[in-house]
Amino acid sequence: MAFPYPASLDEVERLASAVLPADVRDFVAGGALSEHVLRRNRTALDAVTVTPRILTGAPPVAARSRLLGTPAAMPVAVAPMAYQRLLHPDGEAAAAAAARDAGVPYVVSTMSSTPWEQIARTGADVWFQLYWTSDAQARHLVRQAERHGCQALVLTVDVPIMARRLRDVRNAFTLPNGVRAVLLDEGWEGEPSEAHQRTRGSAPARHTAGTFHPGLTADHVRRIRGWSDLPLVVKGVLDPDDARTAVRAGADAVVVSNHGGRQFGAAPAACTRLAAVAEAVGGRCSVLFDSGVRGGIDILRALALGADGVFVGRPVLWGLALGGREGVAHVLSLLQEELTEMLLLSGCRTCERARELTVEALAQ
Ligand code: FNR
Asked: How confident is the model at residue 197, as a pLDDT?
């Protein structure tokens, strides 16, 4: 079937949802508990107004930017997301190839279902996202990432355990044969990761509970800093004091994120914490944002709120489900076109100028 080229990211989601098995669709779309945080992310972003400037002589407009000091075609990276072969047989390799073509970084999850070699072969600018399991395995994973040419490390700090995701519990969600977290076992002499058998509840949640370190501290950030000279990103920050702690421990960037509404069920919408975090770090590290980005308009909002760039999550998976590499390429090109349009409409020549726009949140 010819790829349908949907007109927006929401349309990509609608079409992808219709072709996926219900339990996989739910695993991707779902959030923690009653999914209030998931909905809040969108409501809060929609309530952010940005006042456009006029008479600025804006063109020529460029969405080009820098992420962690490296040039990128736009201030966007593909968020780390587990088990991408659930969505398409080419999984992470297809998504990374599309990111390469779009000129944006691709963040490989610890829970990648595709081996290092296949991802590295795409030639993408790859960052590695670390879930801290044991100290020895974390060290091993960082070494593997460096060996495969990763350009940055992203430590995710908001998953001491996987939150209760009711859709996965009800579906007794389990991974199909052939889809598993292959990087956890690659070249690793320790215990293999637990199999995802179907019993009661969510198999990925059980796996996480038995595997992830539940008590990370600033010392874990410092340890990675000591292991590697790569830029270090701490993902899952909402409190300005935590952002300061991350910077003191050696982070080069923080990601203001509530994990797309998938973790703490009483969390604020991530975009409502962005300005406070940006102010707290005061330029001492980059500030990235995710959780709810669904178009160029949201990237502009995030920039105006003080972000240096955004991660985009689920829309990439919907694109992958709908058309593999072509589907992800379409999602990323929509984002670039929309952002360029938003810059033009708001009177900004560059992404950096967007940070000077007046931004307000409407009362909800
Ligand atoms: C994620 N996310 C995630 N984060 C992370 O650090 N490591 C991971 O392995 C995963 N896995 C994962 C799987 C799936 C299916 C989803 C939807 C999300 C969270 C992700 O990186 C990001 O924070 C959110 O997806 C951002 O929100 P949006 O853009 O999906 O609304």
From this structure: 46
